[in-house]
Amino acid sequence: MLDRPLFDRRHALGLIGLGGAGLATGAIARDLDLGFAGGRRSTTSAFPGKSEMILLRARAPLLETPIDALGQVFTPNDRFFVRWHYADIPTAVDPASFRLRVGGAVRKPLAIPLDALLRLPRVELAAVNQCSGNSRGFFAPAVPGAQWGDGAIGNALWEGVRLRDVLDLAGVAPGAVQVRLAGLDRPPPGAPWFEKSLDVDHARDGEVMIAFRMNGDALPMLNGYPIRLVVPGWYSTYWIKALDRIEVLTAADDRYWMAKAYKIPAAPRANVAPGSKDFPAVPINRMNPRAFITGLADGARIAAGSPFAVSGVAMGGASGVARVDLSMDGGRSWRAARLGPDQGKYGFRAWDATIAGLAPGGYRLWARCTNVVGDTQAMDTIWNPGGYMRNTIPSIAVGAA
Ligand SMILES: Nc1nc2c(c(=O)[nH]1)N[C@H]1C(S)=C(S)[C@@H](COP(=O)(O)O)O[C@H]1N2
Ligand SMILES: [Mo]
Fold it and tell me: What are the φ and ψ backbone dihedral angles of 228, each rounded to 5 degrees?
């Protein structure tokens, strides 16, 4: 049965106004400074299905989550960041006529209606969706691309069906190497479709999911209604939104978005000397660990001599969070923060700590995440020309008076 509340007219009509001019003129709620040169931004609530978001670009939309909205373990759908490459994005989808096509090297090409998709076994998983270029604005020297602060990230509880089960319905042919995925957004004339590919074994690992629900609701139009790919532990460039076609390939995908774009240096931490262009490169893949300080603002003033609370969220990347440690002496010494409940290795984990009262003065507080395989964060910054994979240990200034 088609799940009525999930695919109703409300969602399908939500974006009708998006093509018009004057999009960015909605109620501006705040002016924010993201903390890097050129990082002054305004927030907007003018986008369908979204409340206050930081506006980077109206068309194709780039909307960032304000850091103070990242403190909840599950990022609310109406605060979840938005990133599209091309301006021609789906503004309405008719759930009755929508089909997910599966073709290429398969026994039986399919065009699956949503109600048939929903009859497959359901799976549920918490996972962080993070843009490869999250925090790119902090790169020095600066690199081209969306100048995100730290908010091109969110965690959601995703519900859907396994990509494996969909592939098995069609029957992956012998000799298959990769699975290419694409959605309803269209490139301008002459530009390549936004398509990404996963190795067949990855696509069939039982974790990669076609999600139709996000935090218990239908996906917002801007986050890929009616269905999107979820690739747990991997950067969200692979998380194809408004997914409408899957093609099984017998050779590695050599089209633009796999062969040319989203490549990282094949060097530790994807780090090369600033300005480097010629280095061995590989497609971006698994995420690294990160902690975010969300419960105390940069530059916060606290009462001298009184204990104070600090909190945030952390992610392990491709494996779970093992620990979050705090330092107030530039990384010479660390003490463990308390961890909140473990809601799955790919999701956010809450952390918090109470810091003993400070003598009057200026301080800095660092927060570092280490994951269960021992990957951690470093104080020094990395650089690569794509502005990818930044996970420098974050810090905030704290003043005691
Ligand atoms: N169809 C489609 N899917 C897409 C993209 C896109 O441009 N088109 N961008 C990808 C990138 S680079 C990111 S960061 C995520 C953003 O997901 P979100 O907008 O739901 O936060 O979508 C991914 N999936
Ligand atoms: Mo991205």
Answer: -140, 160
